[in-house]
Amino acid sequence: MAVDRRLTGWGQTSPSVASWVRATTVDEVRAAVRGGQHRGVLARGLGRSYGDAAQNAGGLVVDVTGLDRILSIDADVPSVVVEAGVSLDVLMRAVLPLRLWVPVLPGTRHVTVGGAIASDVHGKNHHVAGSFGHHVLALWLVTADGDEHRLTPDDPLFWATVGGMGLTGIITRAHLSLTRTETAYVSVSTERAPDLASTMRLLEASDDDAPYTVAWFDSMSSRPQVGRGVVHRGRLSSWEELSPRQRRSALVLPAGRAVRVPDVVPRSALNRVSGRAFNEVWFRKAPRQRVDGIQSASAFFHPLDGITDWNRLYGPRGFCQYQFVVPFSAADSVHECVELIVASGHVSCLNVLKRLGPGNRGLLSFPMPGWTLAADFPVREGLDELLDALDGIVLRAGGRLYLTKDSRMTEQTLHASYPGLDEFRRIRQQVDPAGVFTSDLARRLHL
Amino acid sequence: MIDATGRPQKLLLLGGTSDIGLAIARAYVQPGSTEVVLAARPGPRRDAAEADLSAMGARVRLLDFDAHDTTAHREVVARAWQGGDVDISVVAFGVLADNETAWQDASVAEDMASINYTAAVTVGVALGERIVQQGHGVIVALSSVAGERARRSNFVYGSTKAGFDAFYTGLGETLREHGGRVLVVRPGFVRSKMTAGLDPAPLSVTPEQVAEAVRAAVLAGREQVWVPSSMRYVMSVLRHVPRPLFRRLPL
């Protein structure tokens, strides 16, 4: 039974109401697609896209989290076939006892496999492992005709679907390759850097010796501390490295979910003062010198998953997550952007800097070799002007914005930065001439 | 769609030559990416508005709109929606006749009532239908503090705005569950062509100030806004002043 639901992305901006239905079988997905909604159909998973990617105002939204079965696990050629609504959290817990590991983990485990493919998510190991799409051996897609098709990387439609924001159809199943691990722990080294240039130098130097690298940086302190940061490097721990106590839970992810943010934050808890304090504390809590240690995978990969509904801290107006990538040759523009953010007076706390490796053939896939920077800003007056100015720097540098995080870029910006866009539109026109699949993001960007 | 920073892609201005309406449109125009639909009577004022917005980089579309022709309103709204969703609809048409004439001349009173209230209702019904269908959208309804408590000196206009205000406030309640939102705007004295020749009241504002307040209120998701904001408290007091005293106030 379809019911009307008000939906937003994780950033809680631009709500819209859609008819919402939960599917638990592929046949239910096919029936929903064939239902003939005049404002289209869209799949939705766990709603972790920040903007309007998983909304379809006035149309039908098919919640696929009921497609939650793990169909088969092959421990020899490590791979798994899962339904698209399985979350990475569930998948990790299922394969860990077999000493298997999900090769690409974004900043939260609470995303579905279908969503991870549609966003072509990346993780801290992008420079060595690529994005999620690199590890998809096959996927099953219910297209506009209501039929389910098995697609492999040889099909052009596969690469329109990887990173395709759900606009080619509804992903129902996927065959994913896995990697092996001895433990669910990470050997981590952490180091502070006094300014942006040294943060970037340290990250660059880390690429060769660590499969997982990322830096947090301070976006509120001005010169000479602009962009001071904390660089984290990690690799999966071996059995030998663990203490006896850790060995008892070597392949277990902590249950987590300790704290919940109540739905009563009247306005953004973030302002100049609390934002500056957060940035200061976050910098100070990291060790000054390089320190090695062993952390649980949850603590290293998904610290925010421990705080349920952390997005509520930004208050009812929500927040914009802004993530761009610029080529390595345009490192100056990273400096320019950070300076602009610091000078703007807008508050950002979860600031991430990382070096991405080569992209894949995904036509709207985000990653490309270069520096990626993510920041998140509570929505305030004047934020549009700051983000427009950042867009300008990114475009001049030959970079682009991440659609999964986006909630405000213009069609012109998209066009100028995604060379695969025309081919994507052509394929979409071919498989979905009537435009059955659409979303608020697609309407906003005329995809 | 309205983006996360409160920017619409397409804005419909009903009463496309209203000073306040045009100030709101100007406040939203982003060169090259905003479409403005001006629904108004054809004429030099509409042409000037089109030229003005085009010069700012808006894509402007013109629709003929006559507030008195209520049977055509649904069609006008439908044409505004052609080519894609309307994100913000501004209901900005209205007339202000001399109160002394209006309360003694039925045709003048009727004209004001039918434009300010009846036409606003038929337009509102048509807009509401569209918003229910599309699951999102904001209506900016330009009410007035004159409707909050009728004054001897301006009660005919005030009565039309009282009805207008109640209708759009109620429409906002119904549209909430459908993803729509109505912002009822209650300016005090606005220095515009509508009030040209009148003595500005205290706390008077410009159309641009109203537009800025509207933009901020839409971004914040508010359902009512007074311009200037202090007017809210002034009116709150005035509503409760006993009638014998209210009568003597120089309003």
What descriptive keywords fit this protein?
heterodimer; A: 447 residues; alpha+beta; Alpha-Beta Plaits; 8-stranded antiparallel beta sheet; 5-stranded antiparallel beta sheet; 21 strands; 27% helix; B: 251 residues; Rossmann fold; 46% helix; 16% strand
What would you say this structure looks like, in words?
With 447 residues, chain A is an alpha+beta fold. Chain A has helices spanning 26-34, 88-95, 113-118, 126-129, 156-161, 196-206, 244-248, 272-284, 297-301, 331-344, 383-396, 411-417, 421-431, 440-445; strands at residues 3-7, 16-22, 41-44, 60-63, 70-74, 79-83, 100-101, 136-142, 148-151, 170-177, 179-180, 185-193, 212-217, 229-236, 259-260, 291-296, 307-308, 319-326, 352-356, 370-378, 400-401. Chain A has a domain at 185-408: Alpha-Beta Plaits (2-Layer Sandwich). In chain A, the strands form five sheets. An eight-stranded antiparallel sheet of chain A has the order 16-12-14-13-19-20-18-21. Chain A has a five-stranded antiparallel sheet with strand order 5-6-10-8-9. In chain A, strand 8 and strand 9 form a beta hairpin. The longest helix of chain A is centred in the C-terminal third of the chain and has 14 residues, at 331-344. In chain B, strands 3-2-1-4-5-6-7 form a seven-stranded parallel sheet, with helices on both faces. In chain B, helix 6 links the parallel strand 5 and strand 6. The radius of gyration of chain B is 17 Å and the shape is globular. The A-B interface holds A 4, 6, 11, 13-18, 39, 51-52, 56-59, 316-318, 320, 379, 381, 383-384, 387, 407-408, 410-412, 440, 443-444 and B 1-7, 9, 30, 32-33, 84-85, 133-136, 177-179, 215-216, 219-221.
